[in-house]
Amino acid sequence: MTHEHKGRSSEGYLDIDKVLAILNVAPGARVLDAGCGSGYMSKAFAAATGKTGIVWALDPDEDTIAALTSASLPPTICPIVGDITTKTEVADASIDIVYLSTVYH
How does the average pLDDT of the chain come out, rounded? Predict the structure, then answer.
């Protein structure tokens, strides 16, 4: 599988507050941001889930995840190199919300 986003983002096209409201993201929620790209939604999910939540920021692009790993992220965000079409390191039945947006390029 080839990863093609390389810097392109859907951030300017989404109403983040509306996404959070529709998904009913609450404190303590466990969210998988599958195809996280730059991590803008992971950061929004982390703010909404608070100190008791966890957000897995998953993307197949190693450079993207390396950039997230080196960024000043809340401790509740766990960047992971991975592909949603295969098994990840996230434990089975540990996710409340799986978020995918514009991951088919």
Answer: 86
* Predicted TM-score of the model (pTM): 0.84
Please name which of 31, 34, 35, 63 lies closest in space to residue 44, comparing C-alpha atoms: 31
Instruction: List, in sequence order, every residue forming a beta bridge with 77; answer none if it has no partner.
Output: 55
pLDDT over 50 (residue 2): no
Query: CA-CA-CA-CA torsion for 25, 43, 46, 80, nearest 10 degrees?
Result: 110
Q: Tokens 């190693």 identify what position?
A: 62
Token pair recorded at residue 6? 């390389």
Closest by CA to 82, choosing from 50, 59, 57, is: 59
Across the range 38-53, mean pLDDT stands at: 95
Which tokens sit at 1?
A: 């599988």
Between CA 10 and CA 27 the distance in angstroms is: 25
Q: Is 61 exposed, middle or buried (0-12, 13-18, 19+ CB in 10 A)?
A: middle
Q: What 3-state DSSP class applies to 14?
A: coil
